[in-house]
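Hello Y.,

Per our agreement to keep a running log of every chain we model this quarter, I'm adding this entry. I've kept the format consistent with earlier entries: sequence first, then predicted structure.
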Amino acid sequence: MKKNKQNYCSDCELPKSSHYGHWVEEIFSQLSFIKNKHSFFDRFSDRHLDKILAGFFGFFGLVKWQTDFPDSAILPRGRSFINEARKNNAQIAILKSKLGYTNHFRLKINGRTLYFDGLPTPQFIQKNQSSIFDDKQNGKELLQQAGFPILPGKSFWFWQSKKALAYSQKIGFPLVVKPRYGSVARHVRTNIQNLDELKKAIKKSLEYSPTFLIEKYFQNGFAHRVTIIDTEHIFVARQEPAHIIGDGKKNILALIEQKNSEPIRHGDFYHPLVFDETSEKLLLEQNLDKNSILKENQKIYLQKDPFLRLGGDFFDVTEQTSPENKKMFLQIAKTFDLKIFGLDFMSRDISIPWTENHGAILEINSLPCLEIHELAQNTTTPNLGKFIFQLLKKYYL
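Predicted structure for the entry above:
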């Protein structure tokens, strides 16, 4: 069944109705009195709450466990782990409601039954909740207190737009506006150059979230997605805006059509390149238009933002990442006692130590997108699911 585009948001590719749910969820998150340390309830819920809730709603016939389900029912971040678990004779069931599949799973192996949401993250043995970093403001403050490099930024509620505009004058343009909670660059605006653009960006962020973060924009750099598993395994992928590379024969429009015809552009991860007003402006700045023929190996960008929905790409740069940068990533894991997490790191050149090119951490995510590394275009397709399964055996079994 095709999606009704009128009912879906172009910024987050989710039903517009989901915006209301995110508002409510975030407001309740902000009411939490325990921000950092685990409470007894946190440890208990990490291991048992899914089982209790599934039993409660199952009793009323609202949900059921289903062992026979298609790959499309699993979010991309969890597919490699599910496949690895099955290879090791684990029985996997997904919780299905009247409205469809959920992101809750039951795993049976070696006489044990485990429940998890998305991926098994052994938070019950950690000093801190991984979710403390899902609050970008809280995460920024914790990183700064521990001495890790961040960009200046501050969060505001929806009624604090005037304070936000005043703050923007304090730290200066260019800026970034993003929801305080959220992932996958939903409703994010970057490289904001003036107050008019800032007002529009705040309005766009508030469609999705009651709070937003204003942050200094890192110029002339690349966003890198880093995943660390069990303070040992590091994977790094560089995110690039939609681009094409000349062959000395085809014009820009033909190169775009050629790249958009690639099979990977029509799956559930990479998207076709978008050619719009931003693209035309970028070409004009280089005295080009869509009919221009690029020289062989000449690379041009068609978007300023590296978002996948605009045709952005990921490239594996784990081997090129400097030892100093890897050391800093591992230190974050040890400092906050995180067994599995992802982080966004800005750098002009990942092969240069962050102390030399002013690299900065944007945020930490408690549930990393494994597929970013597994689908990076120049990788040997690492199986991150294997390392997650090893982590499961180590801490759960």
